[in-house]
Amino acid sequence: MPERSTASGERAKGIKRVDLAYARLASSEVARDINRDIVLELIRTRQPVSRADLSRFSGLQPSTVSAIVEQLLAERWIVEGAAVERPRGRRPTLISLNDDLVMLVADVRPNQAIIAVVDLNGRFLSREAIPLVSEPERGVNNMVECMKRMQLAHPGKKFEGIGVSLPGRVDPATQRLILSPNLKWSQYDIKGAVEKKIPLQVELSNAANAALLSEMWFGRMDGVRNAVLITISEGVGSAILANGQIVGGKDGLAGEFGHIPIDPSGPQCGCGMKGCWEMYASSRAAIRYYAELAPDAAPVVIQDLLNRAEDGDANAVAALTRQAKYLGRGLRLVTAALSPEVIMLTGDLTASWKTFGPIVQAELDSQMLTGAAPRLLVTTDGELARLRGAGAIVLQRHSGYYRSPHSSADDHAARKPAARGHRVITVNGKR
């Protein structure tokens, strides 16, 4: 009978409840893939590193580490570098991730897509923004042509796959975009259309989930097991980390706080409801506020509005202040539902966080049911986070673990390694 800790720190006997509907026996193949993931995660975070140190850090037997390393070398996930000089004994050879293994990634927005080539260390080799049209077939064709140009520009690289970050929810079973009020591409087979033209496996992901995975990849979430990431752009998206796992929910729809109405008499949202949170807290909302305050002004995009606010334009400041207040108020939905330790925000408004962040914080503090508000963290590289996250999705879904009959398509966002706490493994075995 397993033991559990009591409040006094003593060990007590008890039985852990296991839900047999979801329990699976661990096969030797699953254990082997988990060990492989641990070794790759350690190489990524501690490179260059020796085999001996990998064995010491992971707790795996040297023979196990050596077998995994040889397999990863053969599959070109890693490379060997120079040997370390030692005063005596065998000189260990240091191991690093292979910089020549790269991915094509895309961050799709309603009006444009950013296409890039990213390597295993999250470095960008190329990046280009292209305009998008509302008709999905033409839009995807434009993306594909840009990707092909980037492939040709890097003939010495090995492309592992294609990751696409989307402003909507992707059904994990069908890999179709099933909810995207701001991008009218729902039910179009983006994955199939791209794979017909480029012989690489394509992986789709919600933009907020991709951004959260990027933050976990680069360690900003180390030690945090309950968090929510909010994306602020044309809409308001969110991703949930609960007990160290990214939550997808039924059909991948978990976390659509932006489409919860906060005023039933408010403006019509793209989802069909009225007064959704994103109609008040998104970049589009700020632009609408500015148009109401300055009806004679020429139409602006969000970057224009942020620049005008920095230059002291009173109407721009007022519009963004109103957006910030609604953003803070809407976070009550998040704190009341999930009680996260951390709320991370990424997107347009965070570029002027020094000015508008205190407004969001004050509103959040005033909306708490009880206790102190979660920590607010911001990142001003939302575009890069979504691109890196798209690459991380490719690597996760191409691991041997996901080929195992004991795993499902939904497991990719819920894994965490045995090493380094809860961090999601982003560098996995080759498909």
Descriptive overview:
By secondary structure, this protein is of the alpha/beta class. The protein folds into 3 domains: 26-97, Winged helix-like DNA-binding domain superfamily/Winged helix DNA-binding domain (Arc Repressor Mutant, subunit A), CATH 1.10.10.10; 104-213 and 388-413, ATPase, nucleotide binding domain (Nucleotidyltransferase, domain 5, 2-Layer Sandwich); 222-383, Nucleotidyltransferase, domain 5 (2-Layer Sandwich), CATH 3.30.420.40. It has 12 helices and 16 strands. The strands form 5 sheets. A 5-stranded mixed beta sheet has the order 7-6-5-8-11, with helices on both faces. Strands 14-13-12-15-16 form a 5-stranded mixed beta sheet, with helices on one face. Strands 1-2 form a two-stranded antiparallel sheet. Helix 8 (283-293) runs antiparallel to helix 10 (314-338). The longest helix is centred in the C-terminal third of the chain and has 25 residues, at 314-338. The radius of gyration is 23 Å and the shape is globular. The protein starts with a strand and ends in a 34-residue tail after the last helix.
Short structural summary:
This protein is α/β, with parallel strands linked by helices and 431 residues long. It has helices at residues 28-46, 51-58, 62-74, 136-153, 190-197, 207-217, 278-281, 283-293, 302-310, 314-338, 353-366, 382-397; strands at residues 3-5, 11-13, 78-83, 93-97, 101-108, 112-119, 124-131, 158-166, 169-170, 177-179, 202-206, 227-232, 236-242, 245-247, 342-347, 375-379.
Number of strands: 16
CATH architecture of the largest domain: 2-Layer Sandwich
End-to-end distance: 39 Å
Rg measurement, Å? 23 Å
3D shape: globular
CATH superfamily (homologous) name of the largest domain:
ATPase, nucleotide binding domain
CATH topology of the largest domain: Nucleotidyltransferase, domain 5
- Work out the count of structural domains: 3
- Largest sheet report: 5 strands, mixed
Biggest β-sheet: strands ordered side by side in the sheet:
7-6-5-8-11
The number of helices is 12
The CATH class of the largest domain: Alpha Beta
Q: Taking all residues together, what is the mean pLDDT?
A: 84
